[in-house]
Amino acid sequence: MPGNKYNGTPVTPRTRLERLLLNRELRKFNRFFNPSDELDDGLKEAELFANDSVLNKDENCGPFNEETFSEGVDGSERLHKQRLLVVANRLPVSAVRKGEDSWQLEMSVGGLVSALLGVKEFDARWIGWAGVNVPDEIGQKALTTALAEKRCIPVFLDEDIVHQYYNGYCNNMLWPLFHYLGLPQEDRLATTRSFQSQFDAYKKANQMFADVVNKHYKEGDVVWCHDYHLMFLPKCLKEYNSKMKVGWFLHTPFPSSEIHRMLPSRSELLRSVLAADLVGFHTYDYARHFVSACTRILGLEGTPEGVEDQGKLTRVAAFPIGIDSERFIRALELPQVQDHIKELKERFAGRKVMLGVDRLDMIKGIPQKILAFEEFLEENPEWRDKVVLLQIAVPTRTDVPEYQKLTSQVHEIVGRINGRFGTLTAVPIHHLDRSLDFHALCALYAVTDVALVTSLRDGMNLVSYEFVACQASKKGVLILSEFAGAAQSLGAGAILVNPWNISEVASSIGYALNMPADEREKRHNHNFRHVTTHTSQEWAATFVSELNDTIVEAQLRTRQVLPLLPVNDAVERYTQSSNRLLILGFNATLTEPVHTLGRRGSQIREMEPRLHPQLKEPLKKLCKDQMTTVVVLSGSDRTILDENFGEYNMWLAAENGMFLRRTTGKWMTTMPENLNMDWVDSVKHVFEYFTERTPRSHFELRETSLLWNYKYADVEFGRLQARDMLQHLWTGPISNAAVDVVQGRRSVEVRAVGVTKGAAIDRILGEIVHNQGMKAPIDYVLCVGHFLVKDEDIYTFFEPELPIETPPIVRCRLPEPVGLPVPKIPCGRSRSKTHLKKQRSLSTLEGNYLGSGGWRPMVDDRISVHEGSSVLDLKGENYFSCAVSRKRSNARYLLGTTDDVVTLLKQLADCLH
Ligand SMILES: O=P(O)(O)OC[C@H]1O[C@H](O[C@H]2O[C@H](CO)[C@@H](O)[C@H](O)[C@H]2O)[C@H](O)[C@@H](O)[C@@H]1O
Ligand SMILES: O=c1ccn([C@@H]2O[C@H](COP(=O)(O)OP(=O)(O)O)[C@@H](O)[C@H]2O)c(=O)[nH]1
């Protein structure tokens, strides 16, 4: 049993990586002690499918293993297998109707099927379409029963849905786009026109898959959705049951966001996929493109772990698929395969064999491959009767016009070349429009000297892996397209080519055919090691293990996330209090929500923040209330606050509290007269420079700070520019200046040192109490804002217990009459007593209300205030600090959006008469 490496005792993993490593060791351990389990099942199954690619209906064995619990060889009970629901468009078998209630099942061809057949560690069921329209109930029942024996569950799609969803949206739209081929040339307009109906069918089909999953789902199951056919499925599943563990894996490339951006349904598709807990791709590049599409198109945050939306993380990672290499290696020993090998060797004696195995799909670059072979023959006449190219082109998606066109194109080229270089007894290209059975395919791989994989784009390409697995004795050469996912794993051993460059491929063929044995061996060994260690079993186990772990991680994260504001409680306590203070931020708190989707947001509108129109009424009512004091405390400058709030009876604190006025009075400031602002010019210079060079960024020059905002700029470019700017500022203009830098999600602010909302609130409070002649202490505080890091000190200001390290803050006093009660301050929310210092009583503190930090009118006389008593009589439960749309914060509570702020203030206002 894996344990502590040094003392053998079990260890408790603390981090995600530790958990995953432990999990990996556990899997290795299980495999080591239960090897027969895996191999026996695998072999039975492989042979079942391999015989003549027809599944025997009576065989009580399917693509997946039957038992969940069973006896080990030594009689011990084996581990409980995780239940896994694999959901893919196609089942691993296609059904052929033989009578009203009888069906024959044939194995489907394709990389996804091959890979998932290797998945044996789970108690798995496969949910998908059987590739046939079954309109009648008798037929559906009989097929369901036949498939159940193979642990497959059908989704019945009618002809129209298949036409619109599978042939249309999936294969005519998503497939070419995801492979960078663009929309089909000839019927591009028609495709664009039929988009909406096809997309509707796509969503409908996905919902039909979801319905079947929901019917068969049991608590604790892992649901693994596959491929571009089912991008809507994660959302449908999570809407039905948010606790379901949902993973989604894409078998094709995920294109650059510039391509994905063309899809009219681009945002809906991304959002649906993001509903999954874990999203997987074959390569890091595809994962990177996906994250970038989410940041650029949806405006979400991309992190090294994945994509974050309102604190919810969807993990995104690369899980390169593999094959069940053992199955191929073992098959080579079978007598029927050996017979095939012998036959093939005799048939092609004296000639080198080159092989291509592809579905007849435009992404596979078959015409380009054949043209390169033609060029090779043209330039190397000595090879013409010494080499043969065997091209297996498996028919696929034959109802889609583009695929029909490709078939005739390939036939035409092959015919021309064979006519040109063929002899009476031999042709250079053997082209087969059909699939081969497993044994024939293995034999073919084994006798091949050079395999040619020239995909124009390919998610992974398993043919290249299978070829390598079957080459232990021959050690043939693999020519591999750099645009196949496999190039990232087999790149070192293969000869990598750009399939669009026909001359390069032609010369690579020459290089491969002439390659010395020792180089062939070295290259082969490298690839063989990879193929035999990165298997489909490993792939599936890693994905499922990470999916399980993602759920654990999400639970841990949820615990760190703030609880939602208990609105009813906040309202009730408001009504029960008699001197209440509402401190409200402005930007992203009281403003209208704007759509910040990169290029589409209303930048012009947002650059001048406006009060949410629905807040006007409630705010007016709250401000009129004698027992309520409203303060808007913002980083914005005075003009903006004047414009938005001039008409209300409230307090305005501009530039993070540096300026203050009651709307009935004039602006005052506590900005020290000798505040050193020498740094402003040089920072402004830098901000101007970056604004000029970062399209759609802008900056604001305030009296005590400068703010550079890149919210509407390209996210990645903006972030790079911000990094560059900060580096420059820290090493140059502000290296010795008395400034603070506040980094927002998409902004950089440089302020005079110590200017924070928390530092200002004390002085503001003093002025309010004094100015309003408050007789009773404040007994209710609601502090709501989208306050960034440094400004979060405002939330803690009102917390009754402060950590010892808290720096002294400027204090204030109540004016006369004195004799008010000493504040009753209850315990803070979650602070450990050991970290606390004694309760803070404002009445005992010396104020510098009139000192250097005191309020000065902007133009005329000074205010004077008398010594007084306690400003606050705040019971812990009468204090509500609330962060708006920032899940991690020092505030006690969270409000999701500005709309929630509207609801809250409306409710408070409704309590007033
Ligand atoms: O079912 P079809 O429409 O006939 O297509 C067959 C499969 O083609 C695609 O395969 C991809 O998956 C492979 C394994 O991950 C990968 O190696 C290859 O590069 C991909 O093209 C498709 O993604 C599957 O859904 C289809 O079943
Ligand atoms: O006659 C054939 C030709 C191919 N294949 C299988 O089809 C899969 C093709 O997968 P790949 O990843 O190369 O490409 P895909 O077709 O999925 O795009 C491989 O596992 C092949 O073994 C097959 O079973 N019979």
Question: Can you lay out the helices and strands and say which pair or pack?
Answer:
Elements lengths: L15 H18 L1 H16 L3 E2 L27 E8 L2 E7 L2 E6 L3 H7 L5 E7 L7 H12 L3 E3 L4 H20 L9 H6 L1 H22 L5 E5 L6 H8 L4 E5 L7 H4 L5 H9 L3 E4 L2 H15 L2 E2 L3 E4 L2 E7 L6 H7 L3 H13 L4 E8 L6 H14 L7 E8 L6 H21 L7 E4 L5 H10 L2 E4 L8 H8 L7 E5 L5 H4 L4 E3 L4 H12 L3 H17 L2 H25 L6 H10 L3 E5 L18 H4 L9 H9 L3 E6 L4 H8 L5 E4 L4 E4 L5 E2 L9 H15 L4 E4 L3 E5 L5 H17 L7 E5 L3 E6 L4 H16 L7 E6 L7 H5 L58 E2 L21 E6 L8 E3 L2 H13 L3
Parallel strand pairs: 2-5, 2-7, 5-6, 7-8, 8-9, 9-12, 13-14, 13-16, 14-15, 16-17, 17-18, 19-20, 19-28, 20-21, 28-30, 30-31
Antiparallel strand pairs: 1-4, 3-4, 10-11, 11-12, 21-22, 22-23, 23-29, 24-25, 25-27, 26-27
Helix pairs in contact: 1-21, 5-7, 7-8, 8-10, 10-11, 13-16, 14-15, 14-19, 17-20, 24-30, 26-27
The structure holds ligand L263DTV3 and uridine-5'-diphosphate (UDP).
